[in-house]
Amino acid sequence: MNVENDGYLISTDSERLDLAFLRRSLNATYWAHGRSQDVIEKSIRHSLCFGLYRKDTNEQIGFARVVTDQATFSWVCDVVVDDRYRGRGLGKWLMSCVVAHPQVKNTTSMLVTRDAHGLYERYGYRRHRSMRRPRDEAESERTRTV
């Protein structure tokens, strides 16, 4: 999927993703600080990814990732827009493309955030308490060295 708007492009082509941008951007967040390049690459391989780019330079300036079974459930995560491009409606556009995507739009979709609730509520997300099983850091560390 490629969608263009006002000098910007959103693409689901994972080959276009700028791994240096992703590592820098994700490591600047509260939820993915310290995430390794290997983990970022693995998460991309197993997800539906949306890259946001400037059309004139092809520079990546945003990202969203969706983990989905494409039928019943999707989990939106890792939504970021470069600080230099915030306030231009690009995060809204990115989310509108995410929720309209055929592999997401008919699923029950969830996300977790400490901020930007207003943004996500525009797209039908409601604040909800849910159960969470955090990943086992010790197990994760063991499998990384195998």
What are the defining features of this structure?
single chain, alpha+beta, Aminopeptidase, six-stranded mixed beta sheet
Structure description:
With 146 residues, this protein is of the alpha+beta class. The chain has one domain: Gcn5-related N-acetyltransferase (GNAT) (Aminopeptidase, 3-Layer(aba) Sandwich), CATH 3.40.630.30. The chain is built from 5 helices and 6 strands; from the N terminus they run ββααβββαβαα. The chain has a 6-stranded mixed beta sheet with strand order 1-2-3-4-5-6. The chain is globular. The protein starts with a strand and ends with a helix. The C terminus is likely disordered.
Write a concise synopsis of the structure shown.
The chain has helices at residues 19-27, 37-45, 90-100, 117-121, 137-145; strands at residues 2-5, 8-11, 48-54, 60-68, 73-81, 108-110. It is of the alpha+beta class and 146 residues long.
List the helices and strands and how they pair.
Layout: E1 2-5, E2 8-11, H1 19-27, H2 37-45, E3 48-54, E4 60-68, E5 73-81, H3 90-100, E6 108-110, H4 117-121, H5 137-145
Parallel strand pairs: 5-6
Antiparallel strand pairs: 1-2, 2-3, 3-4, 4-5
- The CATH architecture designation is 3-Layer(aba) Sandwich
- CATH superfamily membership, which one? Gcn5-related N-acetyltransferase (GNAT)
Task: Quickly give the structural class.
Answer: alpha+beta
* CATH class term: Alpha Beta
**Proportion in β-strands:** 15-25%
Shape: globular
User: Could you tell me the radius of gyration in angstroms?
Assistant: 15 Å
**In terms of per-residue confidence, which ranges show pLDDT below 50 for 5 or more consecutive residues?**
142-146
Order of strands across the main sheet? 1-2-3-4-5-6
Major sheet size, sense and barrel closure = 6 strands, mixed
Q: Oligomerization state of this entry?
A: single chain
